[in-house]
UniProtKB/TrEMBL annotation:
Mg(2+) binds at E17, D33, I35, D36, D157. The keyword Transmembrane applies. One of its GO terms (molecular function) is metal ion binding. The chain crosses the membrane at residues 224-245. Its cofactor is Mg(2+). This is Histidinol-phosphatase. PANTHER family: 3'(2'),5'-BISPHOSPHATE NUCLEOTIDASE, PHOSPHATASE. GO terms for biological process: L-histidine biosynthetic process. It holds the Pfam family Inositol_P. It comes from Zooxanthella nutricula. SUPFAM superfamilies: Carbohydrate phosphatase.
Length: 249
């Protein structure tokens, strides 16, 4: 792929998983992942895929998910996503409680804050499912899945998926709601959320991003959680008592 691209478009850049980067400051940059889902590939599960993205000024404008075994190819560009030529659209559940959630594996989330935030979201959906790699995002674009939440991803893992999801009417960002581009790749901590609707995306994001007052305490060991809650409650109670006493004539 790299050789064909550079032979046809010598001024373009290439960012590949296997052979590194070339001219990534160019206006147009291709992001390539020949086999997304290596473990699926080597174990014979036909849910791996080839990912191809074209970025302009660092933003994904074209995305391709190709599954050669099943003969399926999703292409997202110019405001629409097509599967083997037929247009597809996201169709999300109305509520998080009715949603189907995919992640490649529950073990991809780092122990601690990341793992706990995913667990909170997982416990709010109708059914968590695992094991599809890039194919889960294609299913979301086709209207079969409501949410995909993952971590520990590289740029080549998600750039092609952004146009496939968003051009089908979905929403995709990092866990803080930040746009997924080449420039922000280091800031997103490789955590990605894709949703079939704006409302599901916002609801999932409110759980994954963490509220400002809660974030520092998430880093504490789980056994200290009740103690922290008790201390905060006691402090608030004492403060309210003091305020009430000062207001008395």
């Amino acid at each position: 792929m790299r050789q064909r691209i550079l032979a046809r478009y010598p001024s373009h850049g290439v960012y590949g998983e296997e052979l590194g980067q070339w001219q990534t400051e160019a206006e147009f940059v291709w992001v390539l992942d020949p086999i997304d889902g290596t473990k699926s590939f080597i174990t014979g599960k036909p849910l791996f895929g080839t990912l191809i993205a074209l970025l302009r000024h660092g933003r994904p404008v074209l995305g391709v998910v190709d599954q050669c075994v099943l003969g399926e190819r999703w292409v997202g560009a110019n405001g629409e996503t097509r599967l083997n030529g037929a247009r597809v659209r996201c169709r999300g559940a109305a509520r998080l409680a009715d949603s189907m959630l995919y992640a490649t594996t529950p073990h991809m989330f780092a122990p601690g804050v990341e793992e706990r935030r995913f667990a909170r979201l997982r416990d709010r959906v109708k059914r968590p499912l695992y094991g599809c790699d890039c194919y889960a995002y294609a299913l979301l674009a086709s209207g079969f899945v409501d949410l995909v939440v993952e971590a520990d991803l590289g740029v080549y893992d998600y750039c092609a998926l952004v146009p496939v999801v968003t051009c089908a009417g979905g929403r995709m960002s990092d866990w803080n709601g930040q746009e997924l581009t080449l420039a922000t790749a280091k800031d997103c901590n490789a955590r990605v959320v894709a949703a079939a609707t704006e409302s599901l995306w916002a609801e999932a994001l409110s759980i994954l991003s963490g509220s400002p007052w809660r974030m520092p305490f998430e880093r504490l060991p789980a056994r200290l959680g009740p103690a922290v809650t008790f201390v905060l409650g006691a402090a608030c109670g004492a403060a309210l008592t003091l305020v009430a006493a000062r207001r008395r004539p």
